[in-house]
Amino acid sequence: MKPFVIALLCCLLYQFANAQNNGIAVQGIARNSGKTALVSKNLTFTFTLKNPGGTTIYNETATIMTDAFGVFSHIIGTGNATTDPFDEIMFHHEKLSLVISVEIDGVTTEISNSPFQYSPYAKAADNGVPTGSILPFIGTTAPAGWVLCNGQSLTSVAGAAPLIALLGNNNAPDLRGMFLRGTGNSPVNGQSGPSLKGTQADGFENHLHGVGTLDVPNNSGDHTHSTNFGQDYAYSDGDDGTDLRYGSGYSDGSTNKTTNAGGGHDHSITGSTALTGGLAETRPVSYGINYIIKL
Questions:
Q1: If DSSP states are collapsed to H, E and C, what string results for the chain?
Q2: Whole-number average pLDDT of the chain
Q3: pTM exceeds cut of 0.90
C-alpha cells in the first residue's frame, strides 16, 4: 500500500444545466493516511457518472494540483472526456451517481460513490420546463434535452420515452412553415383553433366585394340612351292606324330620339375581378425560426 491516500474528501456539487461552460463543481482536501494535507501535489482524478443500472454514461480524467492547504477544485465537464460530451447528459430523466477515483503514485483508489441530490433551487426548476414544452429557437441543432419539431423519429433518441408517451406516437411534431395556435374556442371571436396535437388548414374569412356606380356630375347618376333611325320606318300617331306616315325620320322630322333620363333600370355585370397580391397564402410579416420540443 502506498503511503499517500485520500483520507477526506468534501464535495460541494452544483449543477448548471443547459448553459455555456456548464459543469459540476467539485472541491475537496487531499490528506495522507496520517491525515496530513498533501500540499502542492499533482493528483490524477477520474470522474464517472453512472445511471441507476450502473452503466457509465460519462467519464473524464483530470490532473489537478492541490494548493498550500491540500485543497483541490475542479469543474466536471472540463476534463478529458472519454465518452460522449458532458452537455448530452440527461440529468432530468435519471437519478445519476458520481464516482470519483484518484491515482497517487500509480495506485488508483475509489474515494466516493454517491447519487446526486437536489438542491432546493434545482428541485424547483425540475418543474420549470416540463416534457412537451415547445419553444422558438434560432439554432439548427437542438440543445441537450430538446429535439427539433421537424417530424423526426424519436425511437432512437435517448431519453425520449416520456415525450413519445405524451405525443402518442414515435415522431416529433412537424412544425416547419407553421404557426402555433391555442386549441379550443376563442373567448374574443368564438372561433375554434385546431384540436390538441392536430392541425388546421389555412383559410380566409368570408367577405363581400362592393361594386360602385358611376357618378355623372349634376345628374345624380341618371343618363340617357339615344336611338338613330337612318332608314325608312312606319309610324302611327293614332290608335286607329290613321295618319300613317313613312319616311327616314320621326314624325317631327328628327332622326334621333332620347329616352327619359329619369328611367330606372339595371345593368348586368359579368366576369370576375382580377387576382391581386401574387401569393398563394395570406400571412403576416414573419421571422424564420425553428421550433424545439422538450424531451
A1: CCCCCCCCCCCCCCECCCCCCCCEEEEEECECCCCCECCCCEEEEEEEEECCCCCEEEEEEEEEECCCCCEEEEEECCCEECCCCHHHCCCCCCCCEEEEEEEECCEEEEEEEEECCCCHHHHHHCCCCCCCCEEEECCCCCCCCEEECECCECCCCCCCHHHHHHHCCCECCECCCCCCCCCCECCCCCCECCCCCCCCCCCCCCCCCCCCCCCCCCCCCCCCCEEECCCCEEECCCCCCCCCEEECCCCCCCCEEECCCCCCCCCCCCCCCCCCCCCCCCCCCCCCCEEEEEC
A2: 76
A3: no
